[in-house]
Amino acid sequence: MESINVLKGYGKLNSAEAQTPHHHRAAKRPLILAVTVSSIVLLTITLGLLIGALVRESSTEGSEAQSLRSSSAQSIRAVCSVTQHQDSCFTSISSLNSSVEPDPEAIFELSLRVCVNEVSNGSLFVRDLVKSSNDARSKGALGDCAGLLEDAASRLRDSVAAMEAAGPGEKALTELKISNIQTWVSAAMTDQETCLDGLEEMGSTVLEMVRDRLSRSREFMSNSLAICAQMSAVLEKFEMGMH
């Protein structure tokens, strides 16, 4: 009988143990459901915050570009920010006797016109020195210098002309025009440096005077060349693209 009771007790013990996992599974279901719901809610909130941040960033960029396009001064500063001489870039363009459009391409064209004016004036200055010089060697070097500056001014005029649309529907600036303008402005800078090198080789007594007179034109050409080289980045600030 004892063995029978033991067996019966053993059987009851196994039955209780067998039921335990079922109770645990039943107890875990609400917990799993709660964790799943919480995860979904957290993911939804995270995605919402991310989307909101992207929308705000896009809105901020749009408002900045709109602000640049609405103010001539801000537009000029934005374009000149890519140059090494930002103050002279801003001042020279702002001082032109014309209404500056808040458009990066128009501002770039004005920077080229500034170069034309300054180099042309430099050429006239050197021509006057040729007339007043009594030194034959210096006179010849000055004459060569004036010719080089006139060539430089001509190259810069070609750059300005390239900015002007030839007909209806033609864009002011293209990749090809950018490449040509870079070449012309670089060549104009080389012409001016060659002018000064010639005066130095001849031992001209007016070398420093001419160098000082041409310092602004070199600075302006450097500004235009920098804007030209960084035109894609400049256009991006205005949410514009290269044509």
From TrEMBL:
InterPro entries: Invertase/methylesterase_inhib (IPR035513), Pectinesterase_inhib_dom (IPR006501), PME_Inhibitor (IPR051955). The chain crosses the membrane at residues 31-55. Keywords: Membrane, Signal, Transmembrane, Transmembrane helix. SMART domains: PMEI (SM00856). Residues 71-227 form the Pectinesterase inhibitor domain. CDD domains: PMEI-like_3. Coiled coil: none annotated. GO terms for molecular function: enzyme inhibitor activity; pectinesterase activity. PANTHER family: PECTINESTERASE 1-LIKE, PECTINESTERASE INHIBITOR-LIKE. Belongs to the PMEI family. This is Pectinesterase 3. It comes from Rhodamnia argentea.
